[in-house]
Structures are given as C-alpha cells and as structure tokens.
Amino acid sequence: MSEAYETVLNHLLFHKSLISETDGGGRITRYVTMLGEIDQGMHVALRDPFEKAVAAAFELVLEKEFDPWDLDLAQFTRMYLEKVQQGGPVNFVTAGKLIFMAWSILKLQSDSLLVSATPPLEEAPADWDFAGLQEPEDLDFNQAVLGAGRVPIDEAIRREGRRPVTLMELMDAFDEARRDAEVQL
Questions:
Q1: Counting beta carbons within 10 angstroms of the beta carbon of residue 127, is it exposed (0 to 12), middle (13 to 18) or buried (19 or more)?
Q2: Are 53 and 95 within 8 A, CB to CB?
Q3: Per-residue pLDDT tens for 50-106?
Q4: Distance separating alpha carbons of residues 166 and 70, to the nearest angstrom
Q5: Residue 158 burial (CB < 10 Å; 0-12/13-18/19+)?
Q6: N or C: which end of the chain has fewer CB within 10 A?
Q7: Measured between alpha carbons, how far is 64 from 76 in angstroms, rounded to an integer?
C-alpha cells in the first residue's frame, strides 16, 4: 500500500463518514473498491465511459501523488487529458464534458465563496448631514487640479482568492456530468 493510496483512501472514507448510505455512500464504496484495484496493479476494465473517466482520474492522482485535499485543476486537467489520450480509443465528447462540468461546478462554488467573503457595503447613517458636502460655487476645479502638487498614485494590491479543490468535489462534478448526460440521452 503506497502513501498516495492511503491519502486518497482516507480522503474518500472521510467524505463517506459525512454522508448517509442513501446519499451516495454506495458511490464512494465503488470508488474505494476501484482505488484498491488500481493500487494493487489490477487493470480496471470498464465499459462505461464515465467509470473509465473516474478510474483515469484516480490513477492520475495515485501516479502523480496529488494531494486529494488541494488539487490544482489546471495541472490536473492537462495531465488528465494526456492520460486519457494515451489509453487508446477515447470518447472525447464524454471526457470533455466531464472536465467542462467539473470546471463549471467548481467555478460556481468559488464564485459563491467570493460573494460570501465580500463584506457588505455600509450605508450612510440616517442622521448623516450631506449639506456640508456641497460644491462651493466659487471653486474652479481646473485650477485646483492644475495648481496642486503631484500626488503619488499607489498601485492597488490585488490578491487572487483561492479555495482548495478536493478530489471528492471533482468526483461529484464527474457524477453530475454523468447525470446530465443521462438526461440528455
């Protein structure tokens, strides 16, 4: 048993402990079985393109020893597409749809996270007097701006908000893509 296998197994078992059997415990049990077969070096032969996609994702996570709690989606997607292409005949519609759905779902999650992290705008108190903020009639703005000294312009510091993406979130996105494809068929 490799360290990568144990890390992914613990990740799956953690998520299984959070949900009931009716809410997807069977699905995670399938993942654990598939993960064990992959770790033992067994060839996982699957006919279902979605199951093949999930198996390829687990193989990639084990081979590259990705942290299942913090997947870099850009790097994972690039390596996943390379792996799928090396595996022989591929249904690119399925693989592409899976990746697109995973990105879409995770983008929606991160967007909602950014919205919730943004502090609400403070409104002016009801007793605030705006009369003192009126423009003076005799002020010439052109002269005021041209006559003033140079004001240093400070560059705004921008930080990219980043939330880690877990392996289970990626697998959930795969399952949602499967359900979406089944509805369309």
A1: exposed
A2: yes
A3: 777 778 888 888 888 888 888 777 788 788 878 777 766 656 666 676 677 667 767
A4: 5
A5: exposed
A6: C
A7: 10
| Gap between the Cα atoms of 8 and 167, Å rounded | 8
Is 60 exceeded by the pLDDT of residue 159? no
Cα–Cα distance, 167 to 7 (Å, whole number): 11
- Residue of 128, 77, 126, 83 lying closest to 103 (CA atoms): 77
Q: Could you tell me the CA-to-CA distances from 173 to 56, 77, 105, 130, 153 in Å, in that order?
A: 15, 13, 6, 51, 44
Q: Is the dihedral of CA 147, 148, 149, 151 positive or negative?
A: negative
Closest residue by Cα to residue 4 from 60, 87, 54:
60
Fill in the amino acid letter for 97.
K
Phi–psi pair at 45, nearest 5 degrees: -95, 115
Residue bearing tokens 């996570």: 61
* N residues, the chain: 185
Residue-range domain boundaries for the chain: 3-116+162-184
Taking the C-alpha atoms of residue 22 and residue 128, their distance in angstroms, rounded to an integer, is 56
For the record, the structure tokens of 24 come out as: 């997807």
Distance, in Å, from the CA atom of 164 to the CA atom of 73, rounded to the nearest integer, reads: 10
Distance of CA 40 to the CA centre of its chain: 29
The number of angstroms, rounded, from the C-alpha of 5 to the middle of its chain's C-alpha atoms is: 22
